[in-house]
Structure formats: C-alpha cells, structure tokens
Design goal:
The chain folds into two domains: 179 residues, Rossmann fold (3-Layer(aba) Sandwich), CATH 3.40.50.150; 64 residues, N-terminal domain of TfIIb, CATH 2.20.25. Helices cover 23% and strands 34% of the residues. It is built from seven helices and eleven strands. Strands 3-2-1-4-5-11-10 form a seven-stranded mixed sheet. A four-stranded antiparallel sheet has the order 6-7-8-9, with no helix packed on it. One of its GO terms (biological process) is methylation.
Length: 253
Amino acid sequence: MKEKTIDFDLVADLYDVYVNSDLDLAFFLRETEGVSSPILELMAGTGRVSLPLLQRGRKLFCVDYSREMLVRLKEKAADFTENLETREADVRDLKLDGTFERILLPFHSLSEITDPSDQKNVLKSVRDALSKNGVFLLTLQNPKVRLKTADGLMRPMGKFSLPDRKKLILSYWNSYDPKRGIVTGMQFYEIYDSKNTMIEKRFLPIRFRPVFKDQIYDYLAELDYEVLSVFGDYSYSSFEEETSPFMIFKLGK
C-alpha cells in the first residue's frame, strides 16, 4: 500500500465527534433512490454517508484504506450487515469485480490523493467499474473558495463533548503552495478532563491537492466520461466558479 496522505487511523476514535456534517445526505439519498443493486462508496470512512443510506434500505460496498475507520463503520452498521460489504483497500490501487449502477466519492475526498497521475488512475478505475447506464457522483471542493483559508493562520474547529464529562478542543492550520499545488497543514486535538486539565494531545498532519475546474475537465475528457450535470452545492444550484463552495459532478460513460 502506498503512503497514506492523511492517516485517519490516528484519530478514528474521535472522528465522529467532530465530523458530523449532514449537508450532503439529502443529496445522496435522492441520487441513490431506486437503486436496488449494491452501491460502491469510495473512501467511506466511519460511515457518515453510509449509515443513513443503509437505514433507507440501500445496499453498499464500502472501501477505505483506514482499518480503524472501517471498524467503526461496521460497529455502527451492525444492524445492516446483510446489506453491507466493506473492503480495506487504497483507491489508488483499486481492483474490483463487476460493475456498479451507482458509485459515490463523497466529502470531496479525491483531493486527498496528492499525485495527479494517481487522481487520474482512480477516475479511470471508477469508469471501468461503472455500469453502462450507471452514474458516478464525484464531489469536489471549489479551490477558488477553499484556498481563501489556506493561508497558514491557526483557526479553531470547535469544542466537542466527550464521555465522562471530557471535552475535545480542535484547531488547525493549512497553507497552499501554488508551485507544488499542494495544501499542507496540521490538526491539533486537545482532550480535557472534567476539571479542565488537558490529559491528551494529538496531531494529525494534513496534505491534499485541490482539483481545479480546468484540470478535472481535462481528466474527464481524456477518460471519456460524459458530464451529465454539474452543481455548485448540494441543493442543485448552478456552479459559479468564483462563489460556489463545491463542484459536484454527475458522470456517466
């Protein structure tokens, strides 16, 4: 397995505490409605998207390279084992049998693959795994908006409650290097007990490559994808390069 660009095993036990966004769930529920065959979810993590889909009767094949994240996904999905298959694998070396009517790459995770050739290889593997009339839902951050905060400044991410009256205080910084096209940074995890004494501190190095509009369109054209739709957010708004927070693609072959 290649080097992990972000080693979520280091914080898998805390991940669900601070990553609890639901901004995309209605979108994925709508876009998978009526799909009775297994849905391929790549870089699935602890199941932030997976669990709501399973609860609505979807069948999932979830892939992630973090063993600890998949452990937590399976724990949370214990009531849905008949509809869930997981695989610990790196999407950069994806080898799949068969094809899928629907493939998801949620939470803008393609950017966590920092080598452009690897990004393109992942997209090729996904196209190969897509059925003739299937749809690939590819979600990306819009670099024109996202990079405004990649300025090296320390920022708070929030305070979160933990069991036994403990709390987690999370902060981060990241910085964009335009010559390398890479964002690097660090997330800081401080855990305090009920007496407000810090009892643990962790660090998670961050590294990702934003995918700009021209680059993703070059990839898609070279790989012969059909662009069915592009949205600027999960409410199906039109994509505006200067202001939309996301680039959300519905792709066919």
